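[job 0412] stage=fold_complex status=start
inputs:
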Amino acid sequence: MTEPSSEPPPIADGLEHRLDPRVIPLQRITGGLTVAAFALASLGVLAIVLTVGDDIPTAVRRLLPVAWLVLVATASVVAYRWPSHHYPYTSYLVDEHGIEIRKGVYWRAVINVPRSRVQHIDVSQGPLDRRYGLGTLVLYTAGTDHARVALDGLEHGLALGIREHLLPSGADDAV
Amino acid sequence: MRSEQRLHPATLLFDMAGHVKRFAVPGLLVLVGASRSSAGPWGIPSGWEPWLLVMLVPAVLATVARYLSFRIRYDEREMVIRSGLVFRNERHVPYTRIQNVDASQNLFHRFFHVVEVRVETAGGEKEEARLSVLAQAAFDDMKRHVLQARAPLAVESVAEPATSEERGTEGTPAGETLVHLPLRELLLCGLLENKGMVLIGAASGVIWESGLGNSVMGRVMGDSESVGRSFVRALISWFVDGGPLPLARIGFGLAALLVFLVVVRIVSMVWAFVRLYDFRLTRIGDDLRTEYGLFTRVTATVPIRRVQTVTVAAGPLHRWLKRATVRVETAGGVGTQQAGASVREWLAPLIHQDAVAGLVAQVVPGVALESLDWQPVHPRAFRRAIKPKLIGIVLISLVAAIVIGRGATGLALLMLPWAVFTTRQFVAHLGWAESDEVVAMRSGWIWQRLTLARVNKIQAVALRESPFDRRAAMARVRVDTAGASEFTRIDIPYLDGEVARQLSGRLSAQAASTSFRW
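[job 0412] stage=fold_complex status=done
writing structure:
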């Protein structure tokens, strides 16, 4: 379907990779939908407050819609800008030992999960993910804080490939 | 071997007792409440007791059904538990996945020679199976099956002779006693642990609920509320307009506080005596077994190789008396905060400092605590750590300045040296160490702790950098293990960025090269 997935590069190349660039429009859409839902809901509340609350001072009455507009506008800008801003800060690296995931723009984390510690793996796909051919890779370990490590925005085929690579191959890990 | 076993018939009795108990508490509350609210004969139409019995009927049926349908079978590799009459359930628990087998026996259980058994695997919050109640002989049988199935596995590990010895002594606790608490240590443990507050809290809740509290308080303090209020008023008037300081009352209050604290400690000692009576930690082959309890006798077995982390903690009194506590985390029953589950993980509620290293060496083979090479955190860690406190002090002083005026500067002057001192101590006591086998962290100034995690138990390694960390070129390394809690986590802050990167790289590579075994 897409060029990068049709060629068979080794998955455990030990190089840092970024997510699939299509994750940016996808996150913009989800962000936009969230903002729209929030805007509609708050608009409803605002309308009710303005019609019911007769004793609200006029200054506040005029200010409230403006505040709403500013909030929604800011949220929209953030929803549009954030995915591309945040994109370069997420990456992953798969080698024969396991996977390393980098996340976070301000509070950064590098999470290392050895291959032998992976309990099971989910690759999930929402309706929007399917449209863009993306998927989410979720690693489960027996740990506590990182019992669930998710990496969303991978090309679906690639996510499946990483899953195959990370899953324990032999029966020796059974216990 | 393939024959199925039932629970002990006494199950019926204990289950029923449980139901009655559940009804008894609300029943009693209703009784007490009613007797309080109206002087008449309880204010409820007579003959309501039979209705309670009607409510018990489904419970009785459920109990009987559970008893009749419950079967346990020991297959070659797994334990099969069948239950349910209508909705049948068959649960297979492989022996090799069992993390620990706990048994508890209260006075009534002992009378019937039965035990309540909890079988835990690593998954989930709840135990895998709760067998209530099993005959003592059946429990021994179960332990035998679980141990036997494990034995071929244990051969892989170093302790080959221990395994054969374990098979020879089957069931009989003839292992090596690692920790035993005599009476004196028990009382000391209660004194240091100071759990009395929890008990008193619970008790006062009950007393309050039942309405006894008011009358008692009234009798002790005269009219309690007005005393309290006038005391507070007197204090405020002394503070604000320089009225006479209510010295007598302060003295009385302090004395009462002192008495209260002493009582709390005594309650705590009694509680420790009851709960941990005859605490004994034995090593039987590759298993650690703890036994304790005066009325409810608890037996817990943790295989040594299932130990995830070991934590040695000591408060100021502990150190003064040269004592420490040692506990381990296992993967089983994550998140259960029941008394039983948390106590099980105590290797030693109280142990002499000199014995700690020996105990740790038993539990984490091949690790000598004293030979660990402790590394300090970053030299500029103090500067980092003090900043949030300074900001806090400035904010508090500002608020105080607005509320009470100039006096606030004094407040700030008082808080400042204290903050500097405590932060210095805190940073000085932070440290980490690493060897081929373990990674360790120590922290705490007043309440010190030291946590060891075996490298082959590391689940994930995370390197974290906050914006402040990045500005100072620092990072923190968090080592994730199964069953880690806030108290026993290895999370090393204020590391030099490069050191942190290397450490996390080494740890994850080491972890990757060992295969994790439950």
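[job 0412] summary: Chain A is about 45% helix and 25% strand.
[job 0412] exit 0
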